[in-house]
Design a protein that fits this description.
alpha+beta, D-Maltodextrin-Binding Protein, domain 2, 17 strands
Length: 550
């Protein structure tokens, strides 16, 4: 009996132990599955997938980059001394970024900045005044080898504005300017003033995309809310960009960035992007959703449409060095025949406004100067062209170029421009197009006689617009010493009344010359899933992804 009891007890213990072991294994598996699901859902909640038709033009080096999307990526991963307060209606509400305070001399030619302490670079080095000096000195030194980069003379003109940068102390830096410069804080807030890390920013070398090495692909100091963790390109086109939260970001203790990961997906055109946001393939569609799609999506309960201000403008450029556009009467005749209202109402469904000054509506110095030429003013068009021998039997003929895949709905715009021009009865237009890369090459090679271009603000001041009439990088071969002198006087003055007068004079000359003519201005829009919050669409045209949450 004792033996039997012992045997039964052993068997019971064996099966009991086995059952307990199996339960323990199952419990571990359930826990692992639960942890995996939690991780997956947490990842979904902290990842924002953004769809766009845009792409980085060339580089994420502030010494060269001068495109909207490149600057927007740089804004997420880098830092500037000051920034524009989100939601600003003027673009001149500056707050500290890498600087905490600043002051200037009475004549505004000397500016001192106190830096934020404890800001870490990616290698653990603490940001100090030597990094600020190196960044600006490097950009200016690179101007001769990058004549069309953002800081160059033909664009922002850092070499004209800055006399020198001085290190006053570990966390104090001074800028000495060559002349009083009204929008100086705006210049410091733009992406061309992003601070670089000398470890990744060779002194006289532009940093370009490096396959399979995101960190080596930008010289920017890793002081922004995100780090560039992945950047894949094929034949100059972005395939995937991933941004991850920067654990060393100076404002991380305040909960930024709100979304830990940003993944950019790239689409071939506006139609594909609209389908992606409608199908839920992306959390957000930004640049470029067509205006008619925006109106349709307003009633879709599965998405949220965001609309806001902005200062984007579009304009028409002429090659002035050869016939027929070497004669300002021809250029003026073409501008008089355009119908801006038809474009803003038909293509943009009222989401854009006709523009009659190169300076946007609502900005200091804006005028209505080009209204004197009218819209679809065929009487003026025919009169001017008749002076040069053009009529119904001998029409003015030229190619009108527009880019694809960069600005919104340029094909639809161009068709309406063609219809308006040919409505004069004395003009014949042949539409031509090219992808953005080829379009820029055509511009540089000066093979386009008339071509559409657009402008996103570097900083919110007329100083950043008025020079477009003669901008060297547009390759119109137009120059006017009087306009340049007026421009230089305006940028050196803090007197708003005087500046308005000077910009008005520049516009009046522009109407007589028509080297470049304004077409329209519009704000920005984005489409998101309903659970996305914190999208700011203000006059700066900036998209601050670190403020967005799900």
């Amino acid at each position: 009996m004792v033996l039997i009891v012992i045997i039964l007890s052993s068997a019971t213990m064996y099966y009991a132990t086995t059952a307990i072991s199996n339960i323990s294994i199952l419990s571990d598996q359930v826990t692992s599955l639960q942890n995996a699901l939690n991780t997956k859902f947490a990842s979904l909640e902290t990842t924002l997938v953004v769809g766009t038709t845009d792409t980085v033009e060339l580089t994420l080096d502030p010494a060269q980059a001068y495109d909207y999307f490149g600057w927007n990526i740089m804004q997420q991963i880098g830092g500037t001394l000051v920034a524009v307060n989100p939601g600003s209606a003027t673009g001149t509400d500056f707050v500290g970024d890498l600087a905490t305070s600043w002051n200037s001399s009475i004549d505004t030619t000397v500016w001192d900045f106190t830096l934020r302490t404890g800001v870490k670079l990616s290698d653990g080095v603490t940001l100090n005044a030597t990094h600020i000096k190196y960044s600006f000195d490097r950009s200016i030194a690179l101007i001769p080898s990058i004549p069309e980069g953002a800081p160059a003379t033909a664009n922002l003109g850092y070499d004209l504005i800055f006399n020198r940068t001085e290190v006053l102390d570990t966390y104090k830096v001074r800028f000495v300017l060559n002349f009083p410069f009204s929008p100086f804080l705006g210049i410091l807030a733009c992406r061309a003033s992003g601070i670089v890390d000398p470890k990744y920013a060779p002194w006289m070398v532009q940093v370009n995309y490096t396959a399979s090495d995101a960190r080596a692909s930008t010289p920017l100091a890793s002081v922004g809310p995100y780090i560039l963790s992945k950047w894949d390109r094929v034949a100059g086109k972005d395939q995937e960009i991933r941004l991850d939260a920067n654990p060393d970001y100076w404002n991380a203790p305040s909960g930024y960035p709100k979304t830990k990961h940003i993944i950019f997906k790239f689409y071939s055109d506006e139609t594909a992007l609209r389908l992606a946001i409608s199908a839920g393939d992306v959390d957000m569609a930004y640049r470029n959703v067509a205006a008619n799609d925006i109106n349709d999506l307003q009633t879709n309960p599965n998405v949220k449409v965001w609309q806001g201000g902005g200062a984007f403008i579009q304009y028409l450029c002429f090659q002035t060095k050869r016939p027929p556009f070497n004669d300002p009467r021809v250029r003026m005749a073409v501008i008089a025949a355009l119908n801006r209202t038809a474009v803003t109402q038909t293509v943009f469904l009222g989401l854009a406004k006709p523009l009659y000054s190169i300076i946007p509506i609502g900005m200091l110095g804006h005028s209505e100067a080009f209204k004197s030429l009218g819209d679809a003013n065929y009487t003026l068009t025919r009169s001017l062209l008749a002076q040069l021998g053009y009529d119904e039997n001998h029409k003015l003929q030229f190619d009108l170029w527009y880019p694809t895949g960069h600005y919104q709905q340029t094909a639809e715009q161009s068709l309406l421009y063609k219809q308006a021009l040919e409505g004069s009865g004395v003009i014949s237009v042949n539409l031509k197009t090219a992808d953005w890369s080829s379009y820029k090459q055509n511009r540089d090679n000066e093979i386009m006689d008339a071509y559409i271009y657009g402008w996103y603000p570097d900083y919110m001041d007329p100083d950043d617009y008025a020079f477009l009439y003669w901008a060297g990088w547009l390759h119109t071969n137009y120059s006017n010493a009087t306009q340049v002198a007026l421009y230089n006087q305006a940028r050196s003055s803090a007197n708003a009344t005087l500046r308005i007068q000077l910009y008005g004079m520049i516009d009046n000359i522009a109407v007589q010359q028509c080297s470049v003519a304004p077409l329209f201005t519009r704000g920005a829009w984005a489409v998101t899933k309903p659970n996305v919050y914190g999208v700011y669409l203000d006059i700066t045209e900036d998209m601050r992804y670190w403020l967005i949450s799900k």
